[in-house]
Amino acid sequence: AQSVTQPDIHITVSEGASLELRCNYSYGATPYLFWYVQSPGQGLQLLLKYFSGDTLVQGIKGFEAEFKRSQSSFNLRKPSVHWSDAAEYFCAADGGSQGNLIFGKGTKLSVKP
Amino acid sequence: NAGVTQTPKFRILKIGQSMTLQCTQDMNHNYMYWYRQDPGMGLKLIYYSVGAGITDKGEVPNGYNVSRSTTEDFPLRLELAAPSQTSVYFCASGGLTDYTEAFFGQGTRLTVV
Question: Chain B: nearest CA to A96, how far in angstroms?
C-alpha cells in the first residue's frame, strides 16, 4: 500500500542549529513529493515540491529537500533554524492519480532559545 | 486574491445534527479536496472533485457528502453528526496532476457533543 512515513513525532532544536526532518515513502514508482508547514491554528503552506529533475529542491523560508531514490526518502533541511520555524511539518506524496495525495503524520518542531 | 476560503472557522454540533462546511476558491482550479486532520494522524482525504459535476470518495468518506455545482464551490455536508466526526477540516484546491500544488484553507474546527 502507498504510504508516507515521518519517523520523528517531535523534534527540538536550538535556534541557529541545523535541522533535518525525515520522510520516507512507499510507492511503486517515484511519486510527486511535497513538504508543507502548519503553524498553530493555521492551514498548510507549501514549502517545496519535487516532481522530477534535480534531486535537491529549494523552497521558501530557506528550506531545501533532497530526493534520494535509493532510500525512498525526501528529507527536509535547513542550515540555521529560527524561532519562527516552530511549527508542524508534513511530508506528502502523490502517485500521479487524481486526488491521491497522501500525508505523513507530521513532525512537530520546537525551537529553544 | 483570497485563495481558498472556508466557513465557519469553529462550530459545535450536537449528535444527530446536520451542517454544511463551505469552501470556495477564486483561483479557477479544477481540483478541490476535503481533508480531516486528527491529532497525530496527519490528514485524511474525505472527498475530492476534478471539476464541476464530478466528485469521488477519498479514504474516509463515510458520514459525509459533497457536491460541486460550480468550479468555485465545494461544500461538505455532514448529515447525522457523530462524536467521531470531531476534527479539523481542511478544504484545498489545486491541480496535482498538472504540476500545481494544493492550496489549503484555514480550516474548520468542528466539535460534536
Answer: 6
Query: Nearest CA of chain B to the CA of A110: how many Å?
Result: 16
Q: What domains appear along chain B, each with residue ranges and CATH number?
A: 4-112 (2.60.40.10)
Bond from prior residue into B8 cis (ω within 30 degrees of 0): yes
pLDDT of residue B95: 66
Which residues of chain A does B90 touch, with a Cβ-Cβ cutoff of 8 Å?
43-44
> Domain limits of chain A?
3-112
Confidence of residue A95 (pLDDT cuts 50, 70, 90): low
Per-position b or e across A37-76, b if 16+ CB within 10 A of its CB: bbeeeebbebbbbbbeeeeebebeeebbbbbeeeebbbbb
3-state percent helix, strand, coil for chain B, nearest multiple of 5: 5, 55, 40
Give the pLDDT confidence score for residue B110 in this predicted structure. Answer: 97
CATH topology of domain A3-112: Immunoglobulin-like (2.60.40)
